[in-house]
Amino acid sequence: xxxxxxxxxxxxxxxxxxxxxxxxxxxxxxxxxxxxxxxxxxxxxxxxxxxxxxxxxxxxxxxxxxxxxxxxxxxxxxxxxxxxxxxxxxxxxxxxxxxxxxxxxxxxxxxxxxxxxxxxxxxxxxxxxxxxxxxxxxxxxxxxxxxxxxxxxxxxxxxxxxxxxxxxxxxxxxxxxxxxxxxxxxxxxxxxxxxxxxxxxxxxxxxxxxxxxxxxxxxxxxxxxxxxxxxxxxxxxxxxxxxxxxxxxxxxxxxxxxxxxxxxxxxxxxxxxxxxxxxxxxxxxxxxxxxxxxxxxxxx
Amino acid sequence: xxxxxxxxxxxxxxxxxxxxxxxxxxxxxxxxxxxxxxxxxxxxxxxxxxxxxxxxxxxxxxxxxxxxxxxxxxxxxxxxxxxxxxxxxxxxxxxxxxxxxxxxxxxxxxxxxxxxxxxxxxxxxxxxxxxxxxxxxxxxxxxxxxxxxxxxxxxxxxxxxxxxxxxxxxxxxxxxxxxxxxxxxxxxxxxxxxxxxxxxxxxxxxxxxxxxxxxxxxxxxxxxxxxxxxxxxxxxxxxxxxxxxxxxxxxxxxxxxxxxxxxxxxxxxxxxxxxxxxxxxxxxxxxxxxxxxxxxxxxxxxxxxxxxxxxxxxxxxxxxxxxxxxxxxxxxxxxxxxxxxxxxxxxxxxxxxxxxxxxxxxxxxxxxxxxxxxxxxxxxxxxxx
Amino acid sequence: xxxxxxxxxxxxxxxxxxxxxxxxxxxxxxxxxxxxxxxxxxxxxxxxxxxxxxxxxxxxxxxxxxxxxxxxxxxxxxxxxxxxxxxxxxxxxxxxxxxxxxxxxxxxxxxxxxxxxxxxxxxxxxxxxxxxxxxxxxxxxxxxxxxxxxxxxxxxxxxxxxxxxxxxxxxxxxxxxxxxxxxxxxxxxxxxxxxxxxxxxxxxxxxxxxxxxxxxxxxxxxxxxxxxxxxxxxxxxxxxxxxxxxxxxxxxxxxxxxxxxxxxxxxxxxxxxxxxxxxxxxxxxxxxxxxxxxxxxxxxxxxxxxxxxxxxxxxxxxxxxxxxxxxxxxxxxxxxxxxxxxxxxxxxxxxxxxxxxxxxxxxxxxxxxxxxxxxxxxxxxxxxxxxxxxxxxxxxxxxx
Lengths: 300, 385, 400
What we know:
A: ABC transporter involved in vitamin B12 uptake, BtuC, 73% helix, B: mainly alpha
C-alpha cells in the first residue's frame, strides 16, 4: 500500500514539472496558434541562468533564493519575448511547418550554445538545494519538505496563471485575441502587447519549471530541455491544446502513465516512453481535441 | 551553341567538384564555399544575366541530363585511391533518395513527417535481417526493405490521416521516438548493437564487395556501391519527376493547398494521401536498403530524431516541392558536413543558425519550385505578372 | 527592400563562415626533429557531441604519447597524430574509419570509444589491413567476436571487468543487489556480465531496472528498488546518468551503498555531486591505479604540464598506452602496416606499461587486464585498497 502511495507521490512531483512546461505550449497555441518547440530548452535555459545566482544564495539563503527565482524568471521572460520576435512572429503567415522547424532549430541552438559556451557545459551541473531538506512519514509514506514546497509553488503558479488569463484585463485581451484576432484589434487590443505578454508569461513558467526541476533533482544538464519539451507538448495535447487546465491535467496524466509503467509493469521501465507516447497517439486518434479541449469544427 | 554552353559549363562544374573534394586544406574549402555563395547571390541579384546560362539548359534538357549522368558515372576514376569520398558521395546519393521521398510527402502533399528516420531504419533493418538471417540475395532484400517501409508507413497512416498540422507533427515525432526505443530494446534484432555482417549486394555472380580493374584503374567495393547508388538515385529521381509532372503530382499539390476545395471536386483525399505517403516511404525504404548493403552494419543510433530533423531540413532548405532544390540540398549538406569537420564542435550551432536564417529570409528554399508549365504559352504571361 | 533581403542572406552566411573559420583550432603538429621520416598515426574518437569529454581526454593522451615519442632522441621516426571525429555514431565512424585506413601514409589507428561504433568499423580496418588499437570500447565482441588480426585492445572487456566487480562486491559482503542500467549497449552489456558473475558467486539481483539514458526522473525506479531492501544499488551507465541516480538517491534519503562501472570514474561525478554526495561511491576501473605503477605518476605529471584543457578521464591512460605500443611497433619494424600488425600480434607479451603488463592473446585482446576497485573519498577517486575505507578508518555508507 505504501508502495502505491510513494509512487503516487513520485508521479505527482513529475506531473507538476510536466504541467508547468505544458501550460506554455497550451498558452502559445491558444493565443497565436503556434507550437513553440524550443520551449523545453527555454526551461533548461532558466535553470542555467538561475545557476548564475548561486553566489547570492550562499550569502543570503532565503532572500537569495527569492532573488534567484525573480531574476531568472525576468531574464527568461525577456529572452522569450526576444525569441518570439526572432523566430515566431516573422513566420506567422507561413505554413506551420516553418514555425515548427524554426523553433526546433532554435532549441538546438540554445542547447548547443549552453554546451559550448557555459563553463563546463558538457557536464551535469550541481544545482543548489533551496528548500529545507528532511521530511516526515505518515503510515509508511515518506514525504519530503522539498516536495511539499515544489508542489505548493506549482499549484500557486497554476492558480496564478489561470487568474491572470481569466481575471485581469491583460488576460482578457489575450483571450479576446485568441478568439478573434481582427475583432479584438478593432476593440483596441494591442497585438504586440498581447504577444509580448503571452511569451513573457509562458517563458516565465518554463523558467520556474527549470528551476524546480533543478532543485528537485539537484542537477541540471544541457540536454534536459529536449525531452521535457516533447513531453510537455504531448501533455498539452492529451489535455487539449489551448486549455490551461487541460495542460495541467495532461501533465499529470502523462506522469502517471510513465510512473505506473515503471513501477508496476515488470521490466516496464525501459518502455515507459513508448507506452506514454502510444497512449498519446491513441488520444489523438479517438479524441483529437484532448481531454479538456473545446470541441470545434475544423478551421477553413 | 546551346549544346556547347551546356557541355562546357557542366564540365567546369564537374572539375570544380572534384577539386573541391580532393582539396584537403581548410582555407581552400572555405574559399570554395564563399565563392559558391557569391555565385548564388549573383544569380539572385542579376536574374537576367543568369538566365543566359540557365536557358540553354532548359532548351537542351536531354543533353544536359545525359552528359551530367556520364560525368557522375566516370567520377570513381578520379578517386581510386580515395574511397572515402566515394563512400561519402554514395551516402549523399542515399540521402538524395531519402530527402526526395520525404519531399513527396511533406513538400508535395503537405504531410508533415518527422519520422523519416524510422522508415529509413525499417528499410535498413529489414534488408539487414533478411540478408544476415535468411541469406537472401540483394535483388530480393532491397524490394523487401522498400515493401516493409511502405507497410509500416501504412500502419502509421491511420493516425496520419486523422490528424493535421501540429498534431501530425507530434504523432510522427512520437512515432519516431518510439521506433528508436523499440529498435534499441529489442534483443531479437540486435538491441543497441544492431545487425552486423550484412552482405554486400551481389547480382549474377558479381559480388559488389569484390575488386576489379580497367587498365591502371582499380575499383574497390566503394566504387561498385557508388555506381549502384548512382543508378538507384537516378531511377528514384526519374520516378519522382514522373509523378511530379503527371496529373498525380497536380492532384497531390491540390490536396496540399486546399483540402476542402479538392474534396468538393470529388477527389478522395485519403486515397491520394496514402499514395503519396507510400511512394515517399518506398523511396526512403530503398535508401535504407542500399545503406544496409553498402555499410554492412545497421545500428539504431542512425535512426534517431536527429536524422529525421536533418532530412526535413534538407527538404526545407532545398525548397518544398522542388525536386532539383531538395536534391542539391541533400548533396550539399552531406558533402559539406564532411568538408567542414574542421569546425567540429560548432557544427550543429552554425547549422541550426543557418536553417533559422534561411527559414526567415528565404522560405521558398535554395531552388524554389516553379509554376507548373502545363500551358507553355500561358507561362510567359504568368512570368510577366 | 527586396534586394536588401537577398543581399542580406549571403552576407550573413559569409560572416558565419568567416567566424567559424576563425574558430578552427590549430592542429597538433609540433615540428621538432624534422630530419627524421614522418610517420602518421590516426586517432579516432568522439571529439564532438555528448561523449566528447572522454574522446578529447583520449585524444590528449594520444597527443601526449606522440609528444613523448618525438622528444625521445633514440626514436627513428617523427610521429604525427591525425585526428578524426567519429561523433560516436556508426555513420560518421564508418566514414572516418575509411578515411584513415585508405590513406596509405597513415600506418595505424588508435580508435573508438563507443562499442557500437567499433563493432561497425572493424570490418573496414580488416579489409584495409590497418592495425587498430581500440582504446575505449569495451564490448567483448570487438576483439573476441572475430578473427581479425588487425584489431587489438589494451583495456579489458566488459566480461573481465564485471567478473572482478562481482568478486569485489561479494568480498565486501553485499548479497542483495538492486540494479539500474541504461539501455545503451554500454549499460546492457555491463549488466549482462555482472548478473552472470554475481549469480555464480551466490549473489542475488533483487530488482533490475533498465532506463533510457536521457530519462531525467528516476524516482519511480528507485522507489521500486528500495522497496526490495537491497544492500547495494549498482548502476551501469556513464557519469551524467550516474550523477542523476546518486543525486536522486540522496534526495530520497536512500542510504544504500552505491556502485557504478568504469564510466562513472571521472571528475564530473565528483564535481557535480560535491565531496559530500560522492563520498563512499564505489566503481571499478580497468588497469592498475595510475599512481601505483612507475609510468602512472609521470603520465599524470606530464599531462598536467602539457596544460590540456580536458582531463584524461577513465580511458586516457589506455589511449596513451595504445599509442605508445603502436609507436614501439613502428620503431621496431618500420612504418609498414603488415609488419606492424605482425609485431603487435606476436611480440606483445608482458610489456610493461602504466596500466600493468600488456599481453595480446590470439584475438588481439589484452589477456591480463588489471582492474582496480575505486572509491570516492573527499571528492576524489582513489583505489579502494589505498583508501581509508580499506584501513577501516571510514565505513562505507551502506555497510552495517
